[in-house]
Amino acid sequence: MAKDYLIGIDIGSFFLKGILFETDENEHIVPISLSKLPVDGIINGEIQDMESLRKSIETLIENLKQESQKKFKNPEIIVGYSTNALNITEENFTVEFSKRTEIRENELRNIKKNVIKKYTDEGKIILDSNFVKFHIDEKRVKNPVSFFAEKSLTTTLNVVWVDENAFSLLINVLKDIVYTSEIPIYDSTLSNSYIITTPNDRNVGITVIDFGYNSCRIIIFKDGIPKLFYTFPYGMKYVLKDISNVLKVSEKEAHRLLEEEGSCSRETKTMKKVNFQLLTGSGYSYVPLSLLNKIIFARVREIISRLNGELSKIGYERTFEVGALQGGIVLTGGGSKIRNIEITIKELMGENFRKSSIVSFDSFKNVPDELVKDPEFQTVFGLIERYRIDLLEENLYEKSRETRSESPKRNKSSKKTTTAFKTFFKKITGGEEEDAL
C-alpha cells in the first residue's frame, strides 16, 4: 500500500463509521481501532450542512487516533458515501491493427484508460468497470490475452458511474481534512457488495439489499457484474418515526429502544416492561415490550412487503437480464441488525436469504469476528479493498510502462510481478476465483 496507515470512513445518513488500519511488512491490512458516532449535516440522505459534517468527520478521525494510541501523520483517508444516482451501462471499444498482433495485458489496460478518459471528459466518474465480452476479428473469445488478431479487438465493458457532481459537496467537505490533491471516494453500497458476496454468488445472480436509514439500496449481480441498481425510498427512519410517534419520544431514544430492546416480532405473550425517557425530558415512562415489538414489526413488514413487490416486478420485467434472483438475497446495512428481521424476510421473500458477512480475507489480517459480522463496519472493509485494487491497477500500469522501455530479460522480481498481473487480470476480465468462508 502507498502508506503505512489507512483510515476508512463510511458516511451514512445516521452514523459515521470509521476504522484505522495499519499495513504490515507483508502488505496485509490490519484493523487497529474503530469508531462510530452520529452524523451531523446530513438530512434525508443529502448533505445540508458542510461545516457540521466536516466537524463530525474530524471528531471521528481524532477518536480513531486516540483509541489506537499510535503516532502518525497524514494517513491515507478513503471515504464511502451512498448516492442515489448510480448508473450502469455497457461500453464498446475497438482497437484496430494494421498487422497480425498478439494481444497482451497492456491492450486491456489501455482500453480501460481510454474509457475512463472518455467518461471523465463527459463529466462522469467511473466507480466500477469489468470486461464482459471480447471479439477478436469478430470471433467471440472468453479471454483475448495471448491470442493473435489480424484486424481488430473489440471489447464490451460493464461500467458503473455517477455524474461528477454526485461527490462535489463531499469533496468540498474533505478538502480541509485530507492533505492530498486526490481524495479516494467510493459508493458505499457498491463497495460493500463486493466484500460480502463471492464470485460464485455474483456469477449465479444475487441481490444485495442495503437496508439503510433513509432508504433501501439494491444492487443485483448476474454473470459476475452489477446488472441493476435501484433505490427504494423507505428505510429505518420510518421505523424510528413510528416508535417516536406512538411513544412520544425523541428519535435518539427511539433508536436506543430499537437497538437495545425491540425486535421484529408479533408475539404478544412477552410480559416485560421497557423504560424510556419522555420527549419532554421530565422523566421516564414504560411500554410493554410486546407493544414495542408490534410497532417495529408492523413497519418493517410493510417495508419488506412493498420492497418484495418492487423486486418481483423487476424480476418479471427483466428476467433475461437479471434472472430470477436465483442466487438469493444478502441483507446488509443498519436495518439488518434489527432483531428477528430474518424471519419476516424469509416469510415474504423466501428461504434463500442470509445476513451479510465478510467473505474474503485475502488482503486483511487479524479481523475480529464481531467486525466480520457487523454490517455497519463491513462497508469500511469494502472501501479499503476497492482502494487496494485501484492502487494495484495503477502500480501495474506504471510497471508495464517501465517494462516496455527495458530489455526483455527477466529480473529477480519477475515472478512476483507476474503473479500480481495474473491476480489483477483475473479481476478485470471477470475470472477471479476467491475462497468463501
Automatic annotation (TrEMBL):
<dbReference type="GO" id="GO:0051301">
    <property type="term" value="P:cell division"/>
</dbReference>
<dbReference type="InterPro" id="IPR050696">
    <property type="entry name" value="FtsA/MreB"/>
</dbReference>
<protein>
    <recommendedName>
        <fullName>SHS2 domain-containing protein</fullName>
    </recommendedName>
</protein>
<dbReference type="GO" id="GO:0032153">
    <property type="term" value="C:cell division site"/>
</dbReference>
<feature type="domain" description="SHS2">
    <location>
        <begin position="6"/>
        <end position="184"/>
    </location>
</feature>
<feature type="coiled-coil region">
    <location>
        <begin position="43"/>
        <end position="70"/>
    </location>
</feature>
<dbReference type="GO" id="GO:0009898">
    <property type="term" value="C:cytoplasmic side of plasma membrane"/>
</dbReference>
<keyword id="KW-0175">Coiled coil</keyword>
<dbReference type="Pfam" id="PF14450">
    <property type="entry name" value="FtsA"/>
</dbReference>
<dbReference type="InterPro" id="IPR003494">
    <property type="entry name" value="SHS2_FtsA"/>
</dbReference>
<dbReference type="InterPro" id="IPR043129">
    <property type="entry name" value="ATPase_NBD"/>
</dbReference>
